Amino acid sequence: MPTTKKTILKAPFKTGEFIVYPAHGVGKIMGLDTQEVAGHKLDLFVVSFIKDKMTLRVPVMKATSVGMRKLADAPTVKRALETVRGRARIKRTMWSRRAQEYEAKINSGDLISIAEVVRDLFRSENQPEQSYSERQLYEAALDRMSREIASVNKISETEAVRQIEQNLAKSPRRGVKGPEAAPAEEAA
Fold this sequence. Notes:
Blueprint: E1 18-21, E2 25-37, E3 40-49, E4 54-59, E5 69-70, H1 74-85, H2 95-108, H3 111-121, H4 132-153, H5 157-169
């Protein structure tokens, strides 16, 4: 006679805890749920993404393999803010290829990779206008980064964006420097 043993859930995440899901950013574990799928009982984390008005059910056994992780620690947040202060590293490849790479970094869920996207796509007032797709990727990366920093530091998202922007302002100047930054009207 086969023995059925009750599996004791040794979950790496707890109810009420904030987590990062790679494709959606910061969410909160609302609880555990058990559903029957194809005759098998499946334990699921119920993760709520309040800002997106979305609820996700993630199998407990697959949570870490799909990239779900705890919020970054304070030293990682500090390193991410230092990353945005660095010099932009923009490859000389076609925009479509770079856009794919940026999208992959944003969806990796890695705070440092997301900070690299914010750094590379940031434009100050004296720089040329961004294309629509550049702006969309920048705003997506900024949103993901600010949500995580806000959750870690227990501050508002607005305050987190302000912190990121203050660090971006400390980065080395990009693009045109000096008096040439003014539009050249002589070329008319």
